[in-house]
From TrEMBL:
Pfam family, one: AMP-binding
Domain AMP-dependent synthetase/ligase: 66-452
PANTHER family per UniProt: ACETYL-COENZYME A SYNTHETASE, ACETYL-COENZYME A SYNTHETASE 1
Keyword Ribosomal protein: no
InterPro entries on file: Ac_CoA_lig, ACAS_N, AMP-bd_C, AMP-bd_C_sf, AMP-binding_CS, AMP-dep_synth/lig_dom, ANL_N_sf
Broadest EC class assigned to this enzyme: ligase
Protein name (Swiss-Prot/TrEMBL): Acetate--CoA ligase
Species this chain originates from: Pedobacter ginsengisoli
Protein's GO biological process: acetyl-CoA biosynthetic process from acetate
EC number of this enzyme: 6.2.1.1
NCBIfam families the record matches: Ac_CoA_lig_AcsA, PRK00174.1
Family statement: Belongs to the ATP-dependent AMP-binding enzyme family.
Length: 630
């Protein structure tokens, strides 16, 4: 299933368009099925209703674990690098990982978890996180991993939306020189979550935690009570594998749903091809498993291909800015998949942190999460790849399940800051505001996909109508990505950023409406408007315009109060970088906030604000411009 030349890519691409079912059936043949499908694909984008490999039976963990045991049982599946470089790293072979997954799957069963039940996972980046994820998949429970940076309220909202029955967490997490009290956050969250019956707590930081009788149990105690024999539950290809919450234009995050068969095929296929993974290579994706990148390219993609995957608990700058490179040297990493924000942040430390670090093991570099600027691309290429490693700039989304538009390493000629060409099976189109498809090259528009692919979302949990409205209603018969995009003279794609009210802060998706809702919860705030602005390291920063009539005479303190509120409501990742107190917001006569104007002001470009005559009160714009200058 690996593509080895550009000519082969073109042939595969053509086949995937002309005969998609034949194409994907051939790819799916590389996986282990308990029973093959009756039909490869049935679909419509109007409801939407998408089914891949209907009638097929499988368990994804047999593909990620069992099938590697005979020949590769002793091969490292996971290499864990702790936050503290002085502590020992841990290697889990496929055999050991299989054992741990089966054992923990039995713990889940013993605690009442059944096929189809939802389980919330809120854990540090430790091997047990992967074990927990796979154990759910083993017994057919649906995991909902929540990133460790989210607040109690965010967790509670997600738990309630999915009606989770059980939570898996740890006492705490290490992140650089900080400790995060995960269990405490869960305790706060669970005050309002009646569906949760049990909480399994892993000991990690060894900080004191409260353990509620009848509800909270220790991971370490539970695994002693079960054995390691756990047959894999037989799943339908279209059974749910996981829910992952992500931000959109409205205030409420939505639970993107992925199903077992299609997701597995797509994650495995894209992993193997994009990175040109070779047996015995070490793959290091620096994302957190709490995001889709971690789901697909730390856990499911690599393990389905029998790869060795690195789980790194720490951050690139702890204890110093050479840490990420040290991890590459220590574990002889061959493929490094990271985010532009990490590259830009490490760039700012100069070349000294790289000096003397052996990076010769590297063969392929990857980037994900946001547009990579040319400067960062070249720095990565020259200083990390030593101009010898292809850079795969991979564009995709939580909703797409896996990489969509990207170079294939050693196959697709790259171009800085271009995601280049669609992978086989992916049919992108650019569409104008009226919904007309824009043909030809050297054009730009809104990026849509006009044909299904196996890894695509099937629904948004508990609210199918929302899925339809968000992705399939803007344009007829197309999946709308929310991204703007250009196609250059060579037919290469470059993603230019979101065209909706989503901002991308350090590669994290944040809805402006979500942040506004959080700010508005602060006593004294009358109204707020949030926009993104260009930020040197984060890509985009968060700029909040806030109407707060009585800022208690101390604006700085009030700003801090608001940050505290946002941290409480969403989490520290959503804290605005700038808060400007204003007396009014630019609104149209129908009451709509003109974000276009606020974006310009946030960018510091007020020379051409466009037409402001439709504003209810144009004077408010002058006031905001004046205040923003200070
Ligand atoms: C953005 C992350 C430019 C894009 C996998 C998308 C990118 C959003 C790239 C999805 C890239 C992701 N170049 N932009 N290579 N990769 N994006 O759901 O705006 O966290 O819509 O998935 O990130 O973010 P999400």
């Amino acid at each position: 299933m690996q593509i080895n030349s550009f000519e082969e890519y073109q042939r595969n691409y053509q086949l995937s368009v002309d005969q998609p079912e034949e194409f994907w059936a051939r790819i799916a043949d590389n996986f282990l099925w308990k029973k093959k499908w009756d039909k490869v694909l049935s679909w419509n984008f109007s409801e939407p209703n998408i089914k891949w490999f209907e009638g097929a039976k499988l368990n994804i963990t047999e593909n990620c674990l069992d099938r590697h045991l005979a020949e590769n049982g002793d091969k490292p599946a996971i290499i864990w690098e702790p936050n503290d470089p002085q502590k020992d790293s841990i290697t889990l072979s496929y055999k050991i990982l299989h054992e741990q997954v089966c054992r923990f799957a039995n713990v889940l069963k013993k605690n009442g978890v059944k096929k189809g039940d939802r389980v919330c996972i809120y854990m540090p980046m430790v091997p047990e996180l992967a074990v927990a994820v796979l154990a759910c998949a083993r017994i057919g429970a649906v995991h909902s991993v929540v990133f460790g940076g989210f607040s109690a309220k965010s967790i509670a909202d997600r738990i309630n939306d999915a009606q989770c029955r059980l939570v898996i967490t740890a006492d705490g997490a290490f992140r650089g020189n900080k400790q995060i009290q995960l269990k405490e956050v869960i305790d706060d969250a669970l005050i309002g979550c009646p569906s949760v019956e049990k909480v399994i707590v892993l000991t990690h930081t060894r900080t004191p935690v409260s353990m509620l009788k009848g509800r909270d149990i220790w991971w370490e105690d539970e695994i002693k009570l079960v054995d390691t024999n756990c047959p894999a539950e037989e799943m339908d290809a279209e059974d749910l594998l996981f829910i992952l919450y992500t931000s959109g234009s409205t205030g409420k995050p939505k639970g993107v749903v992925h199903t077992v068969g299609g997701y597995m095929v797509y994650a495995g296929y894209t992993f193997s091809n994009v990175f040109n993974y070779q047996p015995d290579e070490v793959f290091f994706c620096t994302a957190d498993i709490g995001w889709i990148t971690g789901h697909s390219y730390i856990v499911y993609g690599p393990l389905s291909q029998g790869a060795t995957t690195v789980i790194f608990e720490g951050i690139p700058t702890y204890p110093d800015a050479s840490r990420m490179w040290q991890v590459v040297e220590k574990h002889k990493v061959n493929i490094l998949y990271t985010a532009p924000t990490a590259i830009r942040s490490l760039m700012s430390f100069g070349l000294q942190p790289i000096e003397g670090v052996d990076l010769t093991s590297l063969r392929v570099l990857g980037s994900v999460g946001e547009p990579i600027n040319e400067e960062a691309w070249h720095w990565f290429d020259e200083n990390i790849g030593k101009s010898k490693c292809p850079i795969v700039d991979t564009w995709w989304q939580t909703e797409t399940g896996g990489i969509m538009i990207s170079p294939i390493a050693f196959v697709t000629p790259t171009k800085p800051s271009f995601a280049t060409l669609p992978l086989p099976g992916i049919q992108p189109v650019l569409v104008d505001e009226q919904g007309n498809v824009i043909e030809g090259n050297d054009v730009s528009g809104n990026l849509c996909i006009k044909f299904p692919w196996p890894g695509m979302l099937r629904t948004t949990y508990g609210d199918h109508e929302r899925c339809k409205q968000t992705y399939f209603s803007t344009y007829d018969n197309m999946y709308f990505t929310g991204d703007g995009c250009l196609r250059d003279v060579d037919g290469y794609y470059r993603i230019t950023g979101r065209v909706d009210d989503v901002i991308n802060v350090s590669g994290h998706r944040i809805g402006t409406a979500e942040v506004e809702n959080a700010i508005n919860m602060h006593a004294g705030v009358v109204e707020s408007a949030v926009v993104g602005f260009p930020h040197d390291v984060k890509g985009q920063g968060i700029y909040a315009f806030v109407i707060f009539p009585n800022a208690h005479g101390d604006e700085d303190l009030t700003r801090k109060d608001i940050l505290q509120t946002v941290t409480r409501v969403i989490g520290a990742i959503a804290k605005p970088d700038k808060i400007l107190f204003v007396s009014g917001l630019p609104k149209t006569r129908s009451g709509k906030i003109m974000r276009r104007i606020l974006r310009k002001i946030a960018e510091g470009d007020t020379t051409n604000l466009g037409d402001i005559t439709t504003l209810l009160d144009p004077a408010v714009v002058d006031e905001i411009i004046e205040k923003a200058k200070k």
